[in-house]
Specification:
The complex is a heterodimer of chains A (357) and B (504).
Chain A lengths: L1 H26 L4 H13 L2 H26 L7 H18 L5 H30 L4 H20 L27 H5 L4 H20 L1 H11 L1 H6 L4 H28 L10 H11 L4 H25 L4 H39 L1
Chain B lengths: L1 E9 L2 E10 L5 E6 L5 H8 L7 E6 L2 E3 L4 H7 L1 E4 L11 H6 L11 H14 L15 H14 L4 E5 L7 H16 L4 E5 L2 H7 L2 E6 L2 E7 L5 H9 L17 E11 L5 E11 L3 E5 L6 H9 L4 E8 L2 E2 L5 H7 L1 E4 L3 H5 L6 H5 L10 E2 L2 E2 L1 H15 L15 H13 L5 E5 L7 H16 L3 E6 L2 H7 L2 E6 L2 E7 L5 H8 L12
The chains are: A mainly alpha (357), B alpha/beta (504).
Chain lengths: 357, 504
């Protein structure tokens, strides 16, 4: 009953957001049916579109896992975007530097390096300062995120990673580190089964970690009740650092997977916003690793479908941002609704009192 | 006031299911019941916070339907809540008149103070109207609440668990006030789950059980045993039955311990204490005198500034809480919801809270849910936790059952020593009986038990020795068998001759 409720509520919120979005579209003078039709066909209309949607969801899912870990540990990792780019940068650097390694080993090295870089970026400064001097992780992860993104930008805009004579971008990673696409269809949507496998393994690993291991048990205890955690003999400071490290580790993994599977080099821009969208993904999934898959696919579909929507029905793709906002609003509403009901009841009793007296 | 067959049903719960009560003019009428018997639901209906499902409340001969506290106050019902509704930064007079201030636009402070002074003289509730509420003791704050009710022309006073936060001396003073009200013909409804107080103060007692009023009896003809049986619905053992203690070697020695709280205020100021195997040492004291900081320091939850804690022959002063747990210290913390449990965890996860690292609950860092669940189910059976469902969240249990879970967990770890801080706070007679029996059983098994409690009655009935803590220091240690309530009460207040809580 309770688990059913926790699935239905986010779904209901998403549905309500779609309906209100539809009203908005109609008010702007478009036909909501064609608009949503183009959105859905853009996301799932054919094999390539489905592939695109999955490609777009993978980083959201993997970063979302990291966010879920931090939320379950009672921490807000707002800076996953920076951790993602630091992981991506580290993976790319290893990807084009060490070209004498065998392909599979090189891939693993790149991925591991990306994970470690993301973990350290979140764990060292935000983690240690949170644990030992109490600086708030919302501020520190956010600031480290800007530093990370600007550092990556410097590296390819005149820094040591810039490919000479080109637009700001890094050299391409060695061919044998790029994830194979296997078939023509998968290649068109830049979808590699290796990346899918990594995401699936990551989901299972996070689920196992959180619910089946003493490490996850300790993280969740710290997240739910720090005083009880101390009473249980858990080193709260240590697990604060561990939680942020793990959170950054998955953001870094997402960066590495994206580089090896899709981009193959650092390109100027850095406006992925994966770190921020992943917060919504995790919230929508109630910080449940399995739910992160569904929520990640949903937002991936919004991204790819939104592009198609813009092309077919001329509605600005920004409408998908509006939808995202509405979804967040309605998910948050779940906690507001009981308060509104309480406020309404009090007002009614007050009214009846004034009438009576 | 008369209450006829009052019912309040919530979806799935019959909180009140047939309450009948007659309150005569000028009597002190006690409502006695265990937690969850429906006392607070009844109060909320009388005070207009809840609307009855069916039945009738008659007040001064007329049927009334209060839809808000404002209507109830208007009709003349005065309520003193267990937790006071006062604004600490304002003066006594300002608090009393709040909401009905004299003066039109400009607040007439002089007039307010005069009215409050008149009231306090009329009802013999000595208090300084110009004093700030924040500076008053708990007993005096309660007096302000009573004045507030009279300022609003209350014809009936309801006291909800009024002694819960008072020291023994303050309780005496409150009872004197109640006697005064009775002499003035003001009816008082006294809600409590404490037998001795009800017997002492009331004229008649109505016992509630499972949402129903079971019986109304004349207090003069009642005994603690008869009331307790009515409350619980079966025979209960009131006095703790225990044999003589056989204390052995000391299990815990504390030398000159100093502890600061999180606000860097020194709470424990040089405590020396010894606990032996096979004894219950009661630590008596008024709240805020360092007893809970001392308990936390022994368990390792706060650091000792200075001094040594020797447990089982080893200095554990610098050990982590986990290491102390490992060496055999069990701890029932005073705040079961903040410290003792993770409320959103289910009972299985809560049961392994202290031993999740060890076999059989975990192997190589992987939790064995099946082993933990079967262990939890065993404890649920042994300690009669209700509902007996290991997959329930701790937050879904009543306070008494939450406490049973904590106690079951700590006791079943087979510790060498148990620190029990307020183990029965807010629990009803039936649950208290069970917990006390467990503490005595541990003692008889040769374990050391340190009982930290604000309930003097509990300390007196259980302890083999009583240590009294005042202002962070142990001021006396007396044998439990010969201690009296008055003697310990005075020691707790920090004096040998006179009470610290005076009328001024």
């Amino acid at each position: 009953m309770k688990s059913l409720r926790s699935i239905l509520l986010p779904m209901g919120a998403s549905l309500l957001a779609m309906i209100i979005g539809g009203i908005l579209v109609a008010a702007l003078g478009y036909n909501p049916v064609t608009v949503y039709g183009s959105l859905i066909s853009g996301a799932f209309g054919n094999g390539i579109n489905i592939g695109n949607t999955i490609t777009a969801s993978l980083p959201l899912i993997i970063v979302g896992l990291g966010i879920a870990i931090s939320f379950q540990s009672g921490l807000f990792n707002i800076g996953a975007d920076g951790q993602y780019w630091i992981g991506a940068t580290a993976a790319v650097w290893f990807g084009y530097h060490f070209n004498s390694l065998p392909g599979w080993l090189h891939m693993i090295v790149c991925i591991v390096v990306g994970m470690v870089a993301g973990a350290l970026w979140a764990g060292i400064i935000p983690g240690l300062t949170k644990a030992y001097v109490g600086s708030h992780e919302v501020i520190t992860t956010m600031m480290m995120s800007y530093i990370g993104i600007l550092l990556a930008r410097y590296l390819i805009e005149g820094g040591p990673m810039q490919q000479k004579g080109f637009n700001p971008q890094s050299p391409e990673i060695v061919q044998n580190t790029q994830f194979p696409y296997f078939t023509q269809g998968l290649m068109q949507s830049q979808l590699s089964l290796v990346a899918v496998a990594i995401a699936v393994v990551a989901v299972i690993a996070v689920w196992f970690l959180l619910y089946k291991t003493t490490l996850g048990y300790q993280l969740r205890t710290v997240g739910l009740n720090q005083r009880a955690a101390r009473y249980a003999g858990i080193n709260v400071k240590l697990f604060t650092v561990v939680a942020l490290c793990l959170s950054g580790l998955f953001a870094g993994l997402a960066g590495a997977v994206q580089m090896l599977g899709v981009d193959h080099r650092l390109l100027d821009g850095f406006s992925s916003n994966y770190g921020y969208t992943a917060i919504v993904v995790s919230l929508l999934a109630r910080n449940n690793p399995i739910g992160v898959i569904i929520a990640g696919l949903f937002f991936g579909a919004l991204t790819t479908g939104g592009q198609n929507m813009q092309m077919v029905s001329n509605v600005p793709a920004a409408l998908t941002d509006v939808l995202t906002g509405l979804i967040i609003f309605f998910v948050a509403c779940e906690r507001i609704i009981p308060q509104i009901i309480g406020w309404y009841r009090r007002r009614r009793t007050l009214k009846s009192t004034t009438v009576a007296s | 006031m008369e209450i006829v067959d009052l019912k309040k049903w919530f979806p799935g719960v019959k909180a009140n299911d047939g309450v009948n009560l007659t309150l005569r003019a000028g009597e002190v009428h006690a409502i006695l019941g265990e937690n969850g018997a429906g006392k607070s639901t009844l109060m909320k209906m009388i005070y207009g916070l809840l609307e009855p499902t069916s039945g009738e409340i008659r007040f001064m001969g007329k049927a009334v339907h209060f839809r808000s506290p404002r209507e109830a106050i208007h009709a003349g019902i005065g309520m003193v809540h267990q937790h006071f509704m006062l604004i600490p930064a304002l003066t006594v007079a300002e608090n009393v008149v709040l909401g009905d201030e004299p003066g039109r636009i400009k607040f007439n402070r002089k007039e307010a103070e005069r009215r409050v002074r008149d009231l306090s003289e009329k009802y013999r509730l000595a208090i300084d109207p110009t004093a700030k509420v924040a500076d008053l003791s708990v007993g005096l704050q309660q007096r302000v609440e009573i004045l507030k009710a009279f300022y609003r022309k209350a014809k009936l006073i309801i006291l909800d668990e009024p002694t819960a936060l008072l020291t023994p001396q303050e309780t005496r003073e409150l009872f004197a006030i109640i006697h005064g009200l009775k002499a003035d013909g003001v009816p008082v409804l006294f809600i409590s789950h404490k037998l001795d107080e009800v017997l002492e103060i009331s004229d008649r007692v109505t016992v509630m059980r499972a949402g129903k009023t079971v019986e109304t009896v004349e207090t003069a003809g009642a005994t603690p045993q008869s009331l307790a049986n009515l409350m619980v619905g079966r025979e209960v053992v009131l006095r703790v039955e225990k044999n003589a203690a056989h204390p052995g070697e000391p299990i815990l020695k504390i030398h000159d311990l100093h502890v600061r709280d999180s606000g860097r205020i020194e709470r424990v100021k040089g405590v020396n204490l010894e606990l032996r195997r096979g004894e219950i040492l009661g630590l008596a004291g008024i709240d805020g005198n360092g007893q809970f900081e001392l308990a936390d320091a022994i368990a390792g939850l706060i650091k000792a500034e200075q001094g040594h804690i020797i447990f089982d022959g080893h200095d554990i002063t610098r050990l982590t809480p986990a290491e102390r747990t490992e060496r055999g210290i069990a701890y029932v913390p005073q705040d079961r919801q903040a410290d003792g449990l993770v409320l959103s965890f289910d009972l299985v996860e809560n049961t392994i809270l202290r031993d999740f690292r060890k076999r059989p609950f975990a192997k190589n860092g992987v939790i064995d849910r099946a082993a933990a669940a079967s262990y939890t189910e065993r404890l649920i059976r042994e300690f009669d936790v209700r509902p007996p469902d290991a997959s329930r969240k701790a937050s879904e249990l009543s306070g008494g059952n939450q406490q049973k879970v904590i106690l079951a967990r700590e006791v079943s770890r087979d510790p060498l020593m148990l620190i029990a801080a307020q183990p029965t706070r807010g629990l009803d007679v039936g649950a208290i009986e069970g917990i006390h029996r467990q503490l005595v059983r541990l003692r008889d098994e040769g374990k050391g038990v340190l009982l930290v409690s604000l309930e003097l009655e509990e300390i007196l009935s259980l302890s083999d020795r009583i240590a009294v803590i005042h202002d962070g220091r142990i001021v006396a240690i007396v044998p439990g068998a010969h201690a009296t309530r008055e003697q310990i009460g005075l020691l707790m207040a920090g004096s040998h001759g006179h009470s610290e809580v005076s009328m001024s």
